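Long-time lurker, first post.

We've been arguing in lab meeting about whether adenosine-5'-triphosphate would sit comfortably in this protein at all. Half the group thinks yes, half thinks no, and nobody has a model to point at. So I'm putting the question to the forum: if I give you the sequence and the SMILES, can you give me back a predicted structure of the complex? Inputs are below. Any interpretation is welcome too.
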Amino acid sequence: MEFSQLKRLVESFGKLRVAVVGDIILDKYVFGKVERISPEAPVPILEVEREEYRAGGAANVALNLKAIGVGEVALLGRIGADSEGERLKQILSEKGIASYLIETEEVPTTLKTRLIGRAQQLLRVDRESKKLLEEGESKRIIALLEEFKPNAVILSDYAKGVVNPTLVEGLRKLNIPVFVDPRPKNTLLYKGFTCVTPNLKEFEEMKTLLGIKENNFEGDTQKLKEKLNLQRLVVTLSERGIALVEPSGVKYFPATAKEVYDVTGAGDTVVATLCAGVSAGGDWESACKLANITAGIVVGKLGTAVPTLEEIFSHLKQGL
Ligand SMILES: Nc1ncnc2c1ncn2[C@@H]1O[C@H](COP(=O)(O)OP(=O)(O)OP(=O)(O)O)[C@@H](O)[C@H]1O
Ligand SMILES: [Mg+2]
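Top reply:
Settle the argument with this. Predicted structure of the protein with adenosine-5'-triphosphate, as tokens:
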């Protein structure tokens, strides 16, 4: 019975409008072969065979929402006026995501390039600027949100400047549920939002920042939830699944992955599924069960990936 309830919940995602606000990243993968060492320095030479681009950070959260069937998805954030920004816009429009992006000459689009040879990462090259959004830019994002009228907002914070005090103040005034994938250094900005979804390491750092000194998971999670005045706190526990912190105590939901290839992006899938599940009228427990299923599908795929509806339904059919 539970399976058919979860299936109905997923089938109702089509009616939702969800906006993602946050730091947008372009992930570039350069694949090649390594056959010799450079004569210039003791480093391998990568002979490029193929290049691939993927939308990352907040853009990957938007892709996840679309993949699980959310009807209208908007992405708000900042890109640079450069070819990487153009590439992101192209990926987003191909996937049917409405992008309301601030394009600026001030900062480049955040680009993470991974060089991969012999199936292993040789080097990651980051190009980014963490300049805070200007006040006018933050206000513009709030105005765009008012226009889009989402049922819920996801703040996908990678601490690269989009999530700032002006933005969160404006967001609070809109009175829309806000789900946050957090960065510990911005912890105090998340006060009063609906739900925050740290992984275990982020949870520990947030505790330190808030001066919570004990070392008892159940008590500490309640304290953090109270200090930030959240409706719920959801801590993701990697292979151990998800902990849902309710007013009455902590509930644990075991992970569902059968095989694990690559855990990158699983956190994006969790926040997208939780937000959709709760916004569509599901209870928090159902949303957590569903989030473990979708994240479990994603960790079974290589690279930043999204689940498909077919995979979700087949998982539900087989039982949880
Ligand atoms: N090794 C694993 N085995 C099974 N499920 C996993 C594993 N790692 C992650 N998951 C699933 O993915 C969810 C999120 O994982 P995790 O707690 O590692 O988040 P994260 O560190 O934020 O991920 P990200 O790398 O995307 O930032 C878990 O709650 C679980 O459902
Ligand atoms: Mg994460």
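For your lab meeting: The first strand starts at residue 17 and ends at 22. Residues 199, 236-239, 241-242, 255, 257, 260, 263-268, 270, 292, 295-296, 299 surround adenosine-5'-triphosphate (ligand 1) (CB under 6 Å). Whichever side wins, do check it experimentally.
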